[in-house]
User: Which sequence fits this backbone?
């Protein structure tokens, strides 16, 4: 008999968090799979990949440890699922804030401010992302699992940069691939430093990055 798709024994805060993000089925409940992903997000963010155990995740989700393997074949697969969910959630948030901005500098500033907002209300997501950026460089088994999410991130930045070039905010003389790498490296730095340096310093560094990009545009125009 297949396990139930919803869990009434999950911690109330976990279900409330997921419902606020829109993770729920037609009955208004959240799925067991999503509860496991949410619990794994918090565990990986707090303890890292190696130190996180199935028992930790199962306890956070309010399910039996063995149930994790009904949904995920390995810890690596669960880690990849968490990263995929965070990328999707981040992409939805980014798309929403970017719709209200026209210029390249406006979009950069909006993304940074949304990251700070995300840190304020969903800190485990930012903490997990920061750990992932480090651990994926030291865990060979994770690199391939995160490749699809990396491509989605590159696609988002390519769209922003091509639109900026069309508007004249960025020069066509600078290769798009180079600008994608520059923007990803900037945002990666924000994610990794925000938990320790705070919102004010994060936004200050964003202003510096915008100024640097604007100087690049002027020099290459």
Assistant:
């Amino acid at each position: 008999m297949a396990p139930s798709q919803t869990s009434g024994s999950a911690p109330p805060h976990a279900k409330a968090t997921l419902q606020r993000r829109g993770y729920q089925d037609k009955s208004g409940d959240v799925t067991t799979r999503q509860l496991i992903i949410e619990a794994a997000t918090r565990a990986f963010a707090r303890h890292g990949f190696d130190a996180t155990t199935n028992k930790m995740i199962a306890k956070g989700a309010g399910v039996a440890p063995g149930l994790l393997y009904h949904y995920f074949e390995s810890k690596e697969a669960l880690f990849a699922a968490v990263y995929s969910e965070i990328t999707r959630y981040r992409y939805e948030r980014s798309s929403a804030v970017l719709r209200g901005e026209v210029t390249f500098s406006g979009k950069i500033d909006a993304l940074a401010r949304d990251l700070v907002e995300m840190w304020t209300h969903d800190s485990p997501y930012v903490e997990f992302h920061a750990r992932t950026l480090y651990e994926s460089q030291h865990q060979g088994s994770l690199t391939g699992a995160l490749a699809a999410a990396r491509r989605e991130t590159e696609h988002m930045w390519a769209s922003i940069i091509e639109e900026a070039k069309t508007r004249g905010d960025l020069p066509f003389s600078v290769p798009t691939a180079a600008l994608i790498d520059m923007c990803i490296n900037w945002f990666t730095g924000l994610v990794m430093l925000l938990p320790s340096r705070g919102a004010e310093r994060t936004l200050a560094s964003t202003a510096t990055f915008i100024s640097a990009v604007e100087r690049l545009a002027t020099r290459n125009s």
User: Anything to note?
Assistant: The chain has a mean pLDDT of 81.
